[in-house]
Amino acid sequence: MIDKLKENWFVVLVAVLLFTACGYFVYDMNKDKLPGKKADGKDVVAELAGTNIFADDLYDDLYGAVDSESSLGTSMLYMYFERAVADEAVPMTSELKSQISAQVSGVRQNYQAYYGDQWETYLLQGLQASGYTSIDDLEAYFTHYLKLQTLKHENYDANLDSLFSKIHEEKKSRTVSHILVKMTDPDNPTEEEQKKMDDIDAALASGTDFAEVAKQYSDDSTASAGGALGYVDSDTSFVTAFKEAALSQEKGTVGDWVQTEYGRHKILVTETDKAALEADESIRESLYTAIDSYYPEMGAKIVWDKAQELNVTFSDPKIEEALKAYMNITE
């Protein structure tokens, strides 16, 4: 049957194969990536957060809890379904390969630096929480992740104007820069700290560009970038006093000094125009994050629509029902 399916230009097959009254699903493009092991004499089809998922349990979950959005079996089904669609929809390119390689290398280095001799143990735990079973699956993880992101972001780009409209209107979207004078006791600036603030005020009053003043005086890591913090809206995780000031200012204005636990800040709102924000490639990833947050079910809808475009087939209507319920698809 698999060979026959492969004669078509594309088929994603989600099948339930019965083995001594036990079942599990596969799709033909990714069948060799599914875990294959036994524990306590039973087939293990996946591992999630360190817990073995057995074929018979998965079968029971799929067929016994079709209407349950929290079904473990359905969540695993969606995980593989999502990966299958993204894998087929997004071609592997040299740029994508480079991104995957960079991510894998970066994660390995970070885990080794942070966890020392135990880095593999902690990395494996993280992979298992996403349904993978070994350290060697790290490349597969980033392949799936980056392909899925590409699929979603292509859709976001094509519909950016409509998707961003409500976010921009409701959440006061803007780009912001700042200058920080770091202080041990922000309530009581030292003479040196006060002089630095006075020098900053004098430089800005004289017409010196905000970015140049930030490069010269700011104690923040953003100084080299002219104090640029990038995209900010009402959901941004900033200290309350800072965020409130940033969201209250008009474009092009430099506000009064704002006190936070880090010291005193001068804030400049650099852009608020919707079209300008959409055109700014430097904040595009932040816009994607804002869209993800505002439309939490959109990612699943994009996967489902792409699956329909690619002519997904199901071996049993119960599986389709389970997926649609889990993904909140109401068509």
Q: Could you characterize what this model shows?
A:
- The protein is of the alpha+beta class and 331 residues long.
- Among the domains are: 2-89 and 304-327, no CATH class; 174-271, Roll (Chitinase A, domain 3).
- The protein contains 14 helices and ten strands.
- The strands form three sheets. The chain has a four-stranded antiparallel beta sheet, with helices on both faces. It has a three-stranded mixed beta sheet with strand order 2-1-10. A three-stranded antiparallel beta sheet has the order 3-4-5.
- Helix 4 crosses helix 5 (119-128).
- It is elongated.
- The chain starts with a helix and ends with a helix.
- Mean pLDDT is 84; it is low at 1-36.
- This is Foldase protein PrsA.
- Keywords: Isomerase, Membrane, Rotamase, Transmembrane, Transmembrane helix.
- The chain crosses the membrane at residues 9-27.
- Residues 171-271 form the PpiC domain.
